[in-house]
Amino acid sequence: MTTTSTIFFELALTCYFAATIISIVELFKGTKITTRIMLLLVILGFILHTVSIIYRYMASGHIPITNPYEATSFFSWCSVLLFLFLELRYKIGLLGSFIMPVVFVLMLSASMLPREINPLSPVLQSYWLGIHTLLAFLGNAAFAMAFGVGIMYLVQEHYLKSKHHSELFHRLPSLQSLDEINYRLITIGFPLLTLAIITGALWAENAWGSYWRWDPREVWALATWLIYAIVLHARLLAGWRGKRAAILSIIGFLTILIAFFGIKFLKKGLHVFL
Amino acid sequence: MREKLAFNGPKLEEGLLKIKNLPEIKEAVILSTCNRVEIYANARDAGKAAESIKNFISEFHGIKRDALETSLYTLENITAVKHVFRVASSLDSMVVGEPQILGQIKDAFEFALSKKTTGVLLNKLMKKAISVAKRIRTETKIAENAVSISFAAVELAKKIFTDLSTKSVMLLGAGEMAELAAKHLMSSGVKEVLVANRTYETGCSLAKEFNGRAVKFEDFVHEIVNTDIVICSTGASKYVLAKEQMHHVMKERKHKPVFIIDISVPRNIDPEINDISNVYLYDVDDLQGVIDTNRLERQKEAEKAEEIISEEIETFQRWQSSLDSVPTIVALRDRADAIKKEELEKLLNKLPSLGEKERKDIEYMAAAIINKLIHPPTAALKDDTEDKDILIATIKRLYGLNEKED
Questions:
Q1: Chain A residue with minimum CA distance to B293
Q2: Are A136 and A193 in contact (CB under 8 A)?
Q3: Mean pLDDT, rounded, for B325-345
Q4: CA of A104, closest CA in chain B: separation in Å?
Q5: CA B279, CA A238: separation in Å to the nearest integer?
Q6: Residue B76 in 3-state DSSP?
Q7: Closest Cα to residue B50, out of B84, B80, B78?
Q8: Cα–Cα distance list, B153 to B179, B246, B265, B347 (Å)
Q9: What global pTM score does this model have?
Q10: Contact, B258 vs B269, CB < 8 A?
C-alpha cells in the first residue's frame, strides 16, 4: 500500500508540475483555455493526491502527518483544497499562477524526503494528533492563499500606481476584491491557528504534563499568531487595508515557511517528528 | 461631402428602391452611417452597374459627377466581399473594434430585407458578414479595453472597486469630458453623484441632471472623506487639492481607496497625491497613455482578425462557386441516375424470370421517364437568364441537391 501511495503521489506531482508550467504561461499569455487546462490539471492532481494520502493512511493506520514527507505533502494538499474552494467561490483562477509554483516546490521537496513509515511514538498515539494538526494545517493553508492573493494585490496596485498597464492588468481582479479575499482568508486562518495552538497546549499538558515549554515550534507558532493578530487588529482599528495588509500577509506566510522548514534542522524541540 | 451623400430617413427607402430598379442592378443594400455611405449591389456587369449607380447618386443628391468622383471608390467581386467583412468587423472603422457598426450593418440589411431589395447573393453576403464580425469579436480581443478617456476612467474604476453600486462620485467643476465620464459611471451603476461647483446654482442644475446632490465648493475637500471617485475639471490655474489636505482626508477615510481623475488642463490636483497609499490619481495624460496602449493592443488583435477574414472569404467563395450552373446540372443528373438504378435493381430482383428483351425495355422506359423529368430544369439551367442564382438555389432546394454547408 505504501508503494501504491507513492505511485499516486508521483502522478499528483506530475500533474502539479504541468499545472505550474501552464500557470506561468497563464501569467504572460492567459486565455480562458489556459485557465481551464490549468484548473483541470490541478483537479486531476488533487484527486491523485487524495488517493495517495488515503493509501498512506491505510498503510500506517493514522492520519499521515507524522514525518516531514507526510507533513509537507499534507500541507500541499490542504493548500490545493483551499485554492479549488476559492476558485469555486470567487472564480479567481489566476491565483493559481501565484500558488501552484509554491505547491509544486513544496511537493518536490516532499518527494526528496524519506518516505518509510516509522512506528508511531506513544506520545503521538492520541486523537489530538488528528485535531491539532488538521487545524494547524488548514489555518496555514489559508495563510498560504492570503500570501498568493497578497502578491496579486501588490502586482495590481503596482499597475494602477505606475499607470503602465500590461495585458495582465486587465485579467487581474479589482483591488477591492483582492483585499476582501485576503481579509476573508485571514479571518479563516486566524481562528484555526488559535485553536491549533490551544489544542496543542492541551495535548502537551496531556502528554508531557505542561502546557507550554518554549519549544522552537511553539515559539514560531506564537510569532505567526502575533503577526496575523497584528494584521487583523491594524485593519480593524487603524484602517490598515490594501497594500499594508497585503505586505503583512506575505511576511506572515514567509514566517510560516521558515518555521516549517527551519525548525526541522534545529532538531532540539519536542516537535522533532516534524 | 459625406453629409451630402447620406441616405437619411425617407431618403433611405426612396434611394434603395430606386437603385434596385436600375436595369443593371439585381440586388441592393444601402449602409448609411455618420461615417460612411456604402451601396452593396449584385449585378451581372460590375462596371456598368457602378456607372449607373454613380449617375443615380449624382442625380439623387444633386451633386455633379466630377465632384463625386474624388470621394467615391468602387470594389468588385472578392475585394468587395472582403470589404463588407472588414466593415462589419469594424476593422475599417476609425476606432478599430468600435461596436456600433455591426448594429448599423444589421439594420441596413434588415431594412433591405423588409423592402425586398436583396436576393440570394446579398442575403448570404450580409448574413456571413454579421457572423464573421461576431466570430471576430469572440475569438479576438479587438473590442476589449477602453479607447476613449471617459470609458478608460470607468474601466480603471472597476479595477479599483469591485462593485460600483456601493460607490459615490463627486464631480468637481464642470466640463464636457468630466460630465461624460460621470455619465458613464452612472450607467455603470454608481450609488450617488455629488456636484461641487464654484457657482452653487450651476452645481445645482448639474446635480439635477445626474439625479444627484450639489455641495458647496468650499466643502469639497471634506466631502472626499465619503466619496470614492472624484472627477475634477475646474478652470483653476493652481492646485485645488494639496497633498497635505489629502493625507488628512485619507486618515479620516480610514485609508479606504479613492480614485481621482483630474481632467483639467492645467492640472488642478497636486500630482504627488498619487504617492499617498490607496489614492489613485490619473490626469488626462495618464488616461491618454492608457488608451494609447489599448489602441496598440487592438491593432495587434486586428491582425488576427484579418486572418479570420481570409478564412471566411474562402468559404464564401466556395459557396459562390456552388451557385455555378454546371455543377448543378451534373448533380441533378447524378441524382436522377442513382434513383433510376436503385429502382431498377429492386424491380428486376423481384422479377427474375424476365427475358433479356423485357429487361432492356424496362430499362429503356425508366431512362426515358428520368430524362423527360429532368429535361426542363436542365434546359432552364443552361439558359442564359436573369436571376440564375435564384434559379440554381431553387432547383437545388427542390431536388435536395444541397450539400451540407455551414
A1: A165
A2: yes
A3: 88
A4: 30
A5: 17
A6: coil
A7: B80
A8: 12, 21, 17, 79
A9: 0.75
A10: no
Do B282 and B156 form a contact (C-beta atoms < 8 A)?
A: yes
- What would the pLDDT profile of B152-211 be if each residue is shown by its tens digit? 999 999 999 998 999 999 999 888 888 888 888 988 889 999 999 888 888 888 888 888
B232 catalytically annotated: no
Residue B265, Cβ neighbours under 10 Å: how many?
12
DSSP result, A56-67: HHHHHSS-S-SS
Rounded to whole angstroms, what are the CA distances from A76 to A20, A66, A121, B315? Answer: 13, 15, 24, 51
Instruction: Please tell me the CATH code under which domain B2-139 is placed.
Output: 3.30.460.30
Let me know: does A92 contact A163? Beta carbons within 8 Å.
no
Q: Which of B190, B141, B170, B157 is nearest to B308 (CA)?
A: B141
Which three cell numbers, joined as nine digits, stand for B44? Answer: 451581372
CB within 8 Å of A164: residues ≥ 6 apart? B289, B293
Query: With an 8 Å Cβ cutoff, are B277 and A242 in contact?
Result: yes
Determine, for residues A175 and B253 on separate chains, whether the beta-carbon distance falls below 8 Å.
no
Contacts of A169 in chain B (CB under 8 A): 159
Q: Tell me what percent of chain B is helix, strand and coil, each rounded to the nearest 5.
A: 60, 10, 25
Q: Please state the rounded mean pLDDT for residues B119-132.
A: 93
CB A241 within 8 A of CB B255: yes
CB A69 within 8 A of CB A106: no
The answer to whether A61 contacts chain B (CB < 8 Å) is no
Determine whether the interchain pair A239/B254 forms a contact, defined as Cβ–Cβ distance below 8 Å: yes
C-alpha cell at B306: 484579418
Q: Are A113 and A39 in contact (CB under 8 A)?
A: no
Closest Cα in chain A to B139:
A31
In sequence order, what are the residues at sequence separation of 6 or more whose Cβ sits closer than 8 angstroms to the Cβ of residue B231?
Answer: B153, B169, B170, B171, B172, B178, B181, B182, B185, B261, B263
Q: Which residues of A touch B257 (CB under 8 A)?
A: 175-176, 242
The confidence band for A265, taking pLDDT boundaries of 50, 70 and 90, is: low
What does the block give as the cell for B48?
Answer: 456598368
Residues 6+ apart with CB under 8 A from A109: A72, A261
Report the relative pairing of strands B258-262 and B229-233 from DSSP bridges.
Answer: parallel
Tens of pLDDT, residues A146-202: 999 999 999 999 999 998 888 888 889 999 999 999 999 999 999 999 999 999 888
Query: Which one of B163, B253, B293 has the shortest CB-CB distance to A165?
Result: B293
Report the phi/psi class of residue A26: left, alpha or beta, with left for phi > 0 and alpha for psi in -120 to 50: alpha
> Which H or E element spans position B172?
strand B168-173
**H or E segment and range at residue B213:** strand B213-216
Report the alpha-carbon distance of residue A28 to residue A134 in Å, rounded: 36
The answer to whether B11 and B3 are in contact (CB under 8 A) is: no
> Domain coordinates of chain B in residue numbers?
2-139, 149-291, 320-398
Nearest to B106 by CA among B33, B34, B209, B8: B33
CATH of domain B149-291: 3.40.50.720
B162–A177 CB contact, under 8 Å: yes
Number of H helices and E strands in chain A, helices first, is 9, 0
CA-nearest residue to A167 within chain B is: B297
Q: What are the tens digits of pLDDT across the range A217-256? A: 788 888 889 989 998 998 888 778 888 889 999 999 988 8
Other beta carbons less than 10 A from residue B172's beta carbon: 33
